Amino acid sequence: MQIAVTFRHMETSEPVRTYVEEKLAKVKKYIDEPVEAQVALSVEKKIRHKAEVILLAKGVTIKASDETNDMYAAVDGVLDKIERQLKRYKDKIKRHKPLGGRDRRIEKTIFEAQSIDEGYPEPTIIKSDSFHIKPMSVDEAVMQMDLLDKEFLVFTDANSESINVVYRRKDGNYGLIVPQI
């Protein structure tokens, strides 16, 4: 596990860094893949101690933060939140049965702007990537949106194989946009 600890508005503290690394090592039991963790510890107004953690693993990004009057308590709080999210994610993965459906392949190409602007017969390609997108259910899309801490997610529906959008409403509920063909 790669851990990057950043201290903001406070002195670098080796005991706190060691404490964070020991606590994050316990989280590794929930994810088998290589994990990268970015931890930001800060003090605001000399009273409020804030800990933010971004955990990156294969296909999963989990974010959490916590504020208290003590840095160690803030670290404990944020890692408890991360652990709950990972448990929930792992349980959903265990319950999820793979859906039979075809994978879609998307190709992303970046062209050089100058070759397009000047009207060359063929634009110059700078970079080209292609990747598979696995169809998912609405529940899986909501889970992925929550784990990524996004306001909306565009995904391919496993049943209809159409592109749908799930979004977080202002009242805290979720909305689904399904195209009508």
Rounded Rg: 21 Å
The CATH architecture of the largest domain comes to 2-Layer Sandwich
Listing every helix as H and every strand as E from the N terminus to the C terminus, the arrangement reads: EHEEEHEHEHEEE
Query: Into which percent range does the helicity of residues fall?
Result: 25-40%
Query: What general form does the structure show?
Result: globular
- Quote the average pLDDT: 80
Beta content comes to 35-45%
Strands of the biggest beta sheet: in what spatial order? 1-2-3-4
Provide a concise account of the structure shown.
With 181 residues, the protein is of the alpha+beta class.
Structure commentary:
Strands 1-2-3-4 form a 4-stranded mixed beta sheet. A 3-stranded antiparallel beta sheet has the order 7-8-9, covered by helices on one side. Strands 5-6 form a two-stranded antiparallel sheet. Helix 1 (14-27) packs parallel to helix 2 (71-95). The chain is 30% helix and 37% strand. The protein has helices at residues 14-27, 71-95, 113-117, 138-148, and strands spanning 2-8, 36-44, 48-57, 60-68, 104-111, 125-133, 152-156, 163-168, 174-177. The protein is built from 4 helices and 9 strands, in the order E-H-E-E-E-H-E-H-E-H-E-E-E. The protein has 3 domains: 2-95, Double Stranded RNA Binding Domain, CATH 3.30.160; 105-130, no CATH class; 135-181, SHC Adaptor Protein (2-Layer Sandwich). The model has no long low-confidence stretch (mean pLDDT 80). By secondary structure, the protein is of the alpha+beta class. The longest helix has 25 residues, at 71-95.
